[in-house]
Structures are given as structure tokens and as C-alpha cells.
Write a structure and sequence with these properties.
By secondary structure, the protein is of the alpha+beta class. It has one domain. The protein is built from five helices and 15 strands. The strands form four sheets. The protein has a nine-stranded mixed sheet with strand order 1-2-3-4-11-12-13-14-15, sandwiched between helices. The protein has a two-stranded antiparallel ribbon with strand order 5-8. A hairpin with an 8-residue loop joins strand 1 and strand 2. Helix 1 packs across helix 3, helix 2 packs across helix 3 and helix 4 packs across helix 5.
């Protein structure tokens, strides 16, 4: 019987690389029963290792957190999870390409613009959303099924999208912009508000006269997307159970998920008229003090 292993396309012979190889083959073994075409998957992994790892890793995250993964058709989304009442959860995985290490314009000032990174996120999400709409029209995805787009930036050699208060995924999901302070003049002297705020940023500029939406959840064409998942990690960090994943829940989705749907990683959702951030600690959700 042929022995199927993860291709050694970016691994050498060091002890650390052997550990990574063992990690990849371990999660591959768990993923094998749910892969629709394993040989094709492994041939793709030779060319696009991070892309295929991301898909395989997400499958393992679902299994490790008690979900019922099933073998998905090659004609549909990447992952299919069976739920109660004959409903399904579909996950479309995408690993977007990175750009230059540090944008040239940022070097003199040290200020890194986040627009190029947000554009890559929105581009990947838009591409997957178009595929999802096609699956809906064909009846592969049912009208009552949940749909998640899971986006990974592990191929980025440098990441400038996360700010000190809001992660990049909430910027593209909720249209959150730059941090600012209110400034006024009283009695001839400047007065700055002690509490800052985030400006709204519904779009970013792709090219002159071309803008791209960054408040995806407010757009009707995305109402089939129940949530977005986001991760910055890659195989070299050997994650296991989704501790690296942030899930942003769509409050306007046709099939809305509870913010308790996934019990791992971090989450952001609309609550008390604001975007809230929480992280899972020992099975309990607590407010993320690093976010506001």
C-alpha cells in the first residue's frame, strides 16, 4: 500500500524541521478521511504548501473542537461540517499572497500603512464570496446552511494590518478606520479630548477612482457569509486547536451564528452597540484587554 506523506517541499533535515514534518504528517493523517481527492491534494501541497496546510489545519481544528467533519465534494466548498437538524456548516479557506517586506513609503517615517494589507484581505474574501454564491445557485450549499470564509495571511513576510486596538479582520468586516482624537480651541488654547475614537472607513483606495469596500458585513452581497475567520500563523508555528484564529460574526447574515458557536481562539461581534473583542481562556470567554 502506498504511503502518503506531506511533501518535503520547504523542509530540511534540522531537528526543528523534523518536528514540523512530524506535525504536518500527524494532522494529515487526521484529515485524510475527509479529503475528497487525497493524491490531488498532496500534489497541490507541493506547489502551494501554505494554502493546503491551512485547509487541512482548519479541518483538524473542527475535529479537535468536537465538530462532525464529513468528506466534502470537489464541486463545493473546502470543508463540510454536519450539524443538527440536517443543517451544515461550510468553510471556504483562502491563504492570500503577501507583498513586499516593508512598504517603501514607510521606511523614512516608520509608519506602516495598512491599506495594502486590507486590500489583500478584501480581495481574498471577495473571490471566495463569489464562489459561495455560485454554490448557492447550484444548490450545493442549502438555504439554511452556515457559511464561513477562513482567511490566512501566513505567507506575509511582514504584516501591518493589525492596529493596537482593532485586528485587521474587524477593519474589513465592520469598516473601522484610523484612531483619532477630537481637537478644539477653548479660550484661545487647544484642547484635546482625553478619549480617542476610531473613524469610520467604509472603503480603501485601490487605484485612483477605484475604491474597495471595507465594511463587508454591511454589504447585501455578503449576507450569505455567517462569519469570517482570520489567522496570521503558518505551519512553522505548528498550531493545533485554533488558538490563533479570530472569528468575526456577521450580525446581518441571513443565517446568523451565535457568538458562542465556536469555542476557541478569539472572537469579535457586535454587542451593546459596539464591536466587542473576547478571547477564550480555559473554556471561558473574557474581554480582551488589549482591544477596546
Amino acid at each position: 500500500m502506498e504511503k502518503l506523506e506531506w511533501p518535503r517541499n520547504f523542509l530540511g533535515g534540522s531537528l526543528e524541521e523534523k518536528e514540523i514534518a512530524a506535525y504536518l504528517n500527524r494532522i494529515l493523517k487526521s484529515f485524510m478521511p475527509y479529503c475528497s481527492n487525497l493524491k490531488h491534494f498532496l500534489s497541490e501541497a507541493e506547489i502551494h504548501p501554505v494554502d493546503r496546510w491551512w485547509e487541512m489545519y482548519l479541518g483538524n481544528v473542527m475535529l479537535n473542537n468536537g465538530f462532525r467533519l464529513d468528506k466534502a465534494s470537489q464541486k463545493g466548498p473546502d470543508l463540510m461540517i454536519l450539524l443538527e437538524n440536517q443543517k451544515k456548516l461550510w468553510i471556504e479557506a483562502v491563504s492570500v499572497e503577501g507583498g513586499d517586506s516593508i512598504p517603501t513609503q514607510a521606511i523614512p517615517t516608520g509608519a506602516v500603512p495598512d491599506e495594502p494589507y486590507l486590500l489583500r484581505l478584501t480581495s481574498g474574501i471577495c473571490y471566495k464570496n463569489q464562489k459561495i454564491n455560485g454554490y448557492l445557485k447550484k444548490g450545493i450549499i442549502g438555504p439554511d446552511d452556515f457559511v464561513v470564509i477562513a482567511i490566512n495571511v501566513g505567507k506575509f513576510s511582514f504584516w501591518g494590518g493589525d492596529g493596537p486596538f482593532h485586528p485587521a479582520i474587524s477593519k474589513v468586516a465592520f469598516g473601522i478606520g484610523k484612531f483619532a482624537f477630537r481637537w478644539s480651541v477653548e479660550n484661545g488654547k487647544p484642547k484635546v479630548s482625553p478619549r480617542g475614537f476610531h473613524q469610520e472607513r467604509p472603503t480603501v483606495i485601490k487605484k485612483p477612482e477605484i475604491t474597495v469596500s471595507t465594511n463587508i458585513f454591511s454589504q447585501p452581497e455578503y449576507d450569505s457569509v455567517s462569519a469570517l475567520m482570520f489567522s496570521r500563523t503558518n505551519p512553522l508555528y505548528m498550531p493545533e486547536k485554533g488558538e490563533d484564529i479570530t472569528t468575526a460574526y456577521n450580525p446581518l447574515a441571513k443565517n446568523k451564528m451565535s457568538e458562542d458557536f465556536f469555542g476557541f481562539g478569539k472572537r469579535c461581534f457586535v454587542g451593546e452597540n459596539q464591536v466587542r473583542y473576547q478571547k477564550n481562556e480555559n473554556g471561558l470567554w473574557v474581554d480582551d484587554k488589549n482591544r477596546i
